[in-house]
Amino acid sequence: MFRNRSDLKRLNSVPISVLDLVPIYQGGTSADSFRNSLDLAQHVEQWGYNRYWVAEHHNLPGIASSATSIIISHIAAGTSTLRVGSGGIMLPNHSPLIIAEQFGTLATLYPNRIDLGLGRAPGTDPETARALRRNLNHASFPQQIQELQSYFMLTDSQVKAIPGTGLEIPLWLLGSSDYSAVLAGNLGLPFAFASHFSPENTMPAIQAYREAFKPIRQIERPYVMLGVNVVAADTDEEARWLASTLEQQFLELVRGTPGQMKPPANMDDLWNEYEKQAVKRFSNATIVGNPDSVRMQLELFLEQTHADELIIHTNVFNHQSRLKSYEIVARLARRIGAADRR
């Protein structure tokens, strides 16, 4: 994959960012989640993180980011330099014009700080997807992207996104397979891959994207950002204990019983052997440990993938422990105290 050792990237040489699902904790409320997310964003901005993305999900009792554009505005209003965006907006759920207007408004309120990441999954179950009226939109995903892009261009079209027309809003494609990877490459867009829950597809998708890439307008070369679950703590034992919250979320995914974020627990009391192995397949790209261990695992991940940027997803039950995990990663990447921040 790499021509020589000088091609390899180190943790302190790539941007690091945050993926936040705005989790609802057991015993907490959506209002608590919104306060925690803003607090996290304000901390990671000080620690030199590059961007802060929230993801669209619906009808999930443990995720409060359904009104994604509003949450983006909440985060952007409470920060000043951090790029804020969607990781992502599930475009088939929406009219492209509505998304162009929403993000045109965001980009007008917060100039040069807004990213628009797009996905094609529903972000929910089939019944909720029907309630979102996805069945009324017969355009293909590439056609929807093309329509969305047209609203940001200065054209003589009768229908315009106001605000939105003429704004340079960076578009990204998101994916967990090679479909969006190839599409992102063909469209010349940066690509964010969900390694944090689709680890087995990471390398094929990266290769497919880089091989398909055509420099069209937004970027001149392929740009890959990879999602990775990270739970960092002072000791391996503490990190593994904190990470059992994420393992419970994966277990609920395996069982089809999503719920609110749960406190740490002994997983051997909760799963059977089949479920344990299924969870481990989901969590193959999860990095858990003390600072030295996390550094080593992140460096190895970069060596294997040659990613241009990492977007860190850390779901632990205690908010202060979540903050500390992101702080540890920032220190490992030598972001804290750096004068020059992206």
From TrEMBL:
GO terms for cellular component: cytosol. Signal peptide: none annotated. Pfam families: Bac_luciferase (PF00296). CDD domains: Flavin_utilizing_monoxygenases. InterPro entries: Bact_Lucif_Oxidored, CmoO-like, Luciferase-like_dom, Luciferase-like_sf. Residues 28-306 form the Luciferase-like domain. One of its GO terms (molecular function) is oxidoreductase activity, acting on paired donors, with incorporation or reduction of molecular oxygen. It comes from the Bacteria. PANTHER family: LUCIFERASE-LIKE MONOOXYGENASE. To bacterial alkanal monooxygenase alpha and beta chains. This is LLM class flavin-dependent oxidoreductase.
